[in-house]
Design goal:
Radius of gyration: 13 Å
Structural class: alpha/beta
Helix content: 40-55%
Largest sheet: 5 strands, parallel
Low-confidence stretches: none
Mean pLDDT: 96
Number of strands: 5
Number of helices: 5
Length: about 120
């Protein structure tokens, strides 16, 4: 599956700007969401090819949101990469158990992220 449209879910404006800039420079169309409610609104508007998901957010956290998205038949096939400051192995395992396809810790290394995206395509 070719990946063109990416939804970045993060409550940090700085992270959203960094990720959007990085992805656009690599030819991706990027949409952003700052929380779970925002993310579901974006999903309803247009189905992305990939979701980059923060974990620590107000309201529903990224683990809960990942689980909700991967259990929704409309979006179950959309891969999710967790992008988070939570760097413990238990966090990575939990993220994968919620349905994430991969896990990367912040600060995000651009080359590592691009390699993980390419591996999904």
């Amino acid at each position: 599956m070719a990946i063109h449209k990416v939804l970045v879910v993060d409550d940090s404006k700085t992270e959203l700007m960094f990720m959007t800039d990085l992805l656009q420079k690599n030819g991706f169309a990027v949409r952003t969401a700052e929380n779970a409610e925002d993310a579901f609104r974006r999903l309803a508007e247009e189905k992305p090819d990939l979701i980059l998901m923060d974990v620590v957010m107000p309201g529903q956290n990224g683990f809960q949101l990942t689980r909700a998205i991967t259990r929704d038949p409309n979006f179950a096939g959309v891969p999710i990469i967790m992008c988070t400051s939570k760097n413990q192995e238990t966090d990575r395992v939990w993220g994968m158990r919620q349905g994430a396809r991969d896990y990367i810790t912040k600060p995000v290394d651009a080359d590592e992220l691009m390699a993980k995206i390419k591996a999904l395509a």
